[in-house]
Amino acid sequence: DFYGARMNLLVCGFVRPEYDYVDKAGLIEDIRADMAVARRSLERQAYAGLRGDPYLVQFEGGEHEAEVAT
Q1: Staple 59 to which of 14, 23, 63, 65, CB 3.0 to 4.6 Å?
Q2: pLDDT at 69
Q3: Contact assessment for residue 34 and residue 15, using Cβ atoms and an 8 Å cutoff
Q4: 57 and 69 in contact (C-beta within 8 Å)?
Q5: For the whole prediction, is pTM greater than 0.70?
Q6: Terminus-to-terminus CA distance in the chain, angstroms?
Q7: What is the pLDDT of residue 37?
Q8: How far is residue 5's CA from residue 61's CA, in Å, rounded to a whole number?
Q9: Could you report the per-residue pLDDT of 36-59, keeping only the tens digit for each?
Q10: DSSP letters spanning the chain
């Protein structure tokens, strides 16, 4: 549950264009494919250094934000 939590993000690349879906199943299938692409991309050396970047893992504020980050 990350609603109401502060999130820092960094857009590292483009996965695919936005599509209009005729059914929920197609959307879910593409989201799963997007997740696989993102995971593979984050394994690349160029992105590996970002995993512990303070901007992405350290948050000011309440405990909930820190919980969500870990």
Answers
A1: 65
A2: 52
A3: yes
A4: yes
A5: no
A6: 13
A7: 92
A8: 9
A9: 998 898 889 888 888 888 888 887
A10: --TT-----------------SSHHHHHHHHHHHHHHHHHHHTSHHHHTTTT-HHHH---S-HHHHHHH-
Question: Hey, how many other C-beta atoms are within 10 angstroms of the C-beta on 59?
Answer: 19
Residue type, 49: G
Give the amino acid at 69. Answer: A
Question: Which CA distances in Å does 2 have to 35, 60, 64, 69, 70?
Answer: 18, 15, 8, 10, 12
Query: 22-54 burial, b for 16+ CB within 10 Å, e for fewer?
Result: eeeeeeeeeeeeeeeeeeeeeeeeeeeeeeeee
Cα(62)–Cα(67) distance, integer angstroms: 9
Distance CA 51, CA 14 (A): 18
